[in-house]
Amino acid sequence: MSHLSHQYNMVAHPYNMVSINDAISTGQYAGGVLLQGKQQLDEAIKSYQRAIHFRPTLALAYVNLGSALIAAGRCQEAVSVLRQGSRLDGHGLKDRREHESARVSALLQLGALYSDQGRLHRALAAYREAAHSLPKHYPPQSVFNLLGETLARLQQDEEAERWYRAALSAKPDHIPAHITYGKLLAKNSSRAVEAEQWFRRAQKLAPNDASVYHYYGEFLVSRGRHQEAADMYEKAAELQPKDYELAVATATAMRQAARHDDAERWYRKAVSIKPRDARSHTNLGAILHLNGKYKEAAASYREALRLQPGDVTTLTNLHKLHSTMMTT
């Protein structure tokens, strides 16, 4: 009897170990997510690595490990990890859908990394691989749009247009594809009217999306329609009131539209968002100078120089201001 019991235990043991390993892996993965959310990247990386050690087929752990490595500046390691994650075999897994989606996510993250590095042909290859390995349940529009964006950056506009249309065919209300397709069409002056139609459609579909107004404003600037562009930028900045770059872009658009008081208001807004940014104070000084508020302009320039001593642009502007003040 004891012999039979011993044999039974020997057979059951591997299954128990698999169950224990899965539990440990799940715990380590969850811990990694929490640590990454707190920007404790080194600890998060170790947790993900332990999760993979205990369950080498956990594709999501590879995706998050890659993300943490990128955030930590360890990009070459991230490439290797994401490649491994994209090639995992899901045979025998209970949740094949999650596994397949994670494999696609690994390829998309790999493509994004290459794109950020300017390695566009490698990014394109990763996105193509993702598109060709999409499971039926995975929404394709984001992948198709990324392919279009990358091809457009490579000046392969005809193929880019095909992918944008594929994205819009897959999901007609996909806002990113409306914007990127509009931007592509705007490169060709003969298709400017068509481009604007896509921006307008995006505006109707997503009236509270700041990016829609931002890129529509960008298009209007390119067409020399500065008054309309200023309104679009202002709407975008109002929707994202803490976005510094949008505040500056709005102020610049107002200046181009000769709406100098509005430009001053938005440059002041930019200063309030980033009070320790020297460029904010230089820009404000320049518009105050233009608006005839010389003492305030001088104070803004001096604050810019305190934050960034010796800045050539600010020194030049301050010299011009002093010359103006001496002749008035």
CATH topology tier name of the domain at 1-137: Serine Threonine Protein Phosphatase 5, Tetratricopeptide repeat
Total beta-strand segments: 0
Distance between the termini: 110 Å
Structural class estimated from helices and strands: mainly alpha
Instruction: Give the CATH architecture of the domain at 1-137.
Output: Alpha Horseshoe
| Main sheet summary | none
Q: What helical percentage do the residues reach?
A: over 70%
- So, the CATH homologous superfamily of the domain at 1-137? Tetratricopeptide repeat domain
User: What multimeric state do the chains show?
Assistant: single chain
What spatial form do the alpha-carbon principal axes imply? globular
Question: What order do the helices and strands follow?
Answer: HHHHHHHHHHHHHHHHH
According to CATH, what is the class of the domain at 1-137?
Mainly Alpha
Organism: Agrilus planipennis
Keywords: TPR repeat
Protein name: Transmembrane and TPR repeat-containing protein CG4341-like
GO molecular function: mannosyltransferase activity
Describe this structure in words.
The chain has 328 residues and is mostly helical. It has a domain at 1-137: Serine Threonine Protein Phosphatase 5, Tetratricopeptide repeat, CATH 1.25.40.10. The chain is built from 17 helices and no strands. It is globular, with a radius of gyration of 27 Å. The model is unreliable at 1-15 (pLDDT under 50).
